[in-house]
Amino acid sequence: MTMSIPRLRAALLGLVPFLSACAVGPDYKRPPLPPAAGYGHDAVSPPGAMGTQLESGADIPAQWWEVFHSAALDDLVAQALKNNPTIDAANAALRAAREQVKAEQGAFFPTVTGSIQPSRLQNAQPLASPTASGVDVYNLTTTTLSISYAPDLFGGTRRSVESLVAEADQQRFSLEAARLTLASNVVLAAIQDALLREEIDQTRAIIAGQRQTYATFARQADLGQTSQTDLAAQAALLAQSEATLPALEKQFRINRDLLAALMGRTPAEPVEAQFNFDSLTLPGRLPLSLPAQLVEHRPDVRIAEEQLHAASAQIGVAIAARLPNLQFDISGGGANLALTPAVTSSTEFWTLAATLTQPIFDAGTLMHRQRAAEAAYDQAAAQYRVTLVGAFQNTADTLHAIWTDGDALAANEKAEAAARTSLDIARRQLNLGDVSRLAVITAEQTEAQARLALLQARANRYSDIAALFQALGGGWWNRPAQETAQSRQDSITDVLLP
Hints:
Outer membrane efflux proteins (OEP); two-stranded parallel ribbon; 11 helices
């Protein structure tokens, strides 16, 4: 056939210049960092702060939970990241988004289709037969190759691909957010496990001591050595302590179910790991990202930025839809009077056509779609600012908690030591007859409350450390390359290269 490979190649090469057309709409630019972006002086270095030191600008390890130096915790987080279905769902969403990008990139290239249509025909007798032999019944096979191509004159397709790439990056950072949230929840659940175990142990020890005291009071009451008032006060204190135990055991069991769920298991598949505060270490130095690093590393901020990027590209898509569109169609083939395809110079046919389309009247539909895209961009910009402000607020709140809970831990340690000393003194004075039994009961109650308050203060301290690493982004950018999600799809320029 005369319209064969050389002619088709020449026709396609003639379309190449259209690939370099400019793209309409705004070129996306990352929003600048607000001039006053920061955490506040009191959050970074409050007056009288003691204990933990912040390293400004220090990097964050990918496995940030290892700062607690607990092999059981490290193993638990690794299992959760491997088995939790939330991560599987986020990975699938990322794969789907990247496939959408690749599907849209196909619009940069011609579409080629081929068809073969064998048929058997009968010609009406009053009409002349189209065949040279004059027969009325004959076979006809038509073979066709069609090429269709719409050059991206004004960059509408490129803007569409750009938008989809931004959406794929949203999914990438959503995956990082899911990993960070899961790891943080596992760490917090482990800290809660340690707290509840020690609270239960302390409460049982308190109850055991109070039962022993009550038994002593009961024997002395039988001998007339103590009053029924003292005995009733000790019984009330014992009952009060016993009443707190079921609630603690309930929280403990619920937290264990949570740990199993975070592992991707049901409660019928319990978690073997057990924690206590002696198995966890408080780091003495903590990293603090600079404001620019926080914006770069927080997954929620990056998600909001990619939403803004996608909205910006959609403006270009809407503008391009209002401009002329050019479509090239090339088809060629042959018709053979047989059931098998064959193309010769005498049976070939071909068509080369170009169609230029320009919207003329659409009742303002395309104009309003452009305005809607511009409004969506303004909305995304506002949402980005909200997310950015929230990120700095969250980090500052966490820093405030670190300092205040550090002071609270120190205060509770002093209070517990003082309460223990006061109880020892009260018991000695009781033996000497210097104080009443009610004074000892009061000292016991104060000491028990101080012990439990100290445990809660320690748990708050550990939780604050986990919250800080979560607020700073969790170090996902430091994972090994083979474990890190692809940072970016191939650029649009690369896709256009021949």
